[in-house]
Amino acid sequence: MFTNHFTTNSSNNWRESLKELKAARDQYNQYTNIMTPFERAIIEKSIVEQREKIEKSVLTGAITEWNNAIDHVKTSFEIVDLMKAKEVKRWNASEINSQRQMMEDRIKTELGRDDIGRAVKNLEGFFEDGMRGTVEQQRATCEVFRGLVKLLPKGNNPITHEVLSANGLATKANLKLKELRTMPDLDDAHKKAAEAVEGLEQARKTIQHADADLGYTKPNGEIGSFTLFQQLGRVGTDNEGNITFIENRNIENS
After folding, report:
1. Are 99 and 144 within 8 A, CB to CB?
2. Model pTM score
3. Beta-carbon count within 10 A of 174 CB
């Protein structure tokens, strides 16, 4: 009735050892109601002994993957920061600020005219002028125009032709700004960071599955192994949902 599942050398393949332990416990739970007390005691003892035998290798394997995933995420985040810094450095900040101020002043002067409809129409020409300039002029123009609606005289109905036109220019400016600030290296860094985060979540699931298959998970689903509980506590999120890392020298890294 009860199959001997324990055939794998735990030191060679912790995943297979854990799989065998889970299979044994599942089979025990399936047939426990028809076992004699003696049979239950013998099988329970064999399961406990097998868990004790493989636990260290399972914890070491799962935590090693967790550590590697954390290191991968940290490295990918550092590369993203480096690429962001590189993107910032490629711009002439003083030129952008100067061009931004000139464009904003020009727009405010135009919108101060009596014919607001004509003024908004003229702004389309302002935008095109800015797009024919240097990359700094283009970026400055886009940054001003994406907030164009805020520069309109107060009291304008949000569904007037002028406001709709301003919204259209703002959308165009936002798309162009994104295009201007796109760097293949930065995009690639973001992509690899996302993949690293996905790998971290897979490593988290490995920790959770190891805890469950070792038989430690609590009825409410919480991690029961204190060692694994501490490990998962090394990674959290801030108020904005960004991943944070908490290192504690007292945590055992198996």
Report:
1. no
2. 0.73
3. 15
Contacting residues for 253 by C-beta, under 8 A, at least 6 apart: 63, 67, 231
Confirm if 83 and 183 have CB atoms less than 8 A apart. Answer: yes
d(CA 216, CA 204): 16
Q: Specify the long-range contacts of residues 183-190, CB closer than 8 Å, at least 24 apart.
A: 183/83, 183/86, 183/87, 185/83, 185/86, 186/80, 186/83, 186/84, 186/86, 186/87, 189/76, 189/79, 189/80, 189/82, 189/83, 190/80
35 exposure class (CB count in 10 Å sphere: 0-12, 13-18, 19+): middle
For the chain, the domains span 89-184
Strands 235-237 and 243-245: antiparallel
Q: What is the pLDDT of residues 95-106, one digit of tens each?
A: 999 999 999 999
Long-range contact list for 114-122, CB < 8 A, 24+ apart? 116/152, 116/153, 116/156, 116/162, 117/161, 117/162, 120/152, 120/162, 120/165, 120/166, 121/165
pLDDT per residue as tens digits for the range 160-191: 777 888 899 999 999 999 999 989 999 999 99
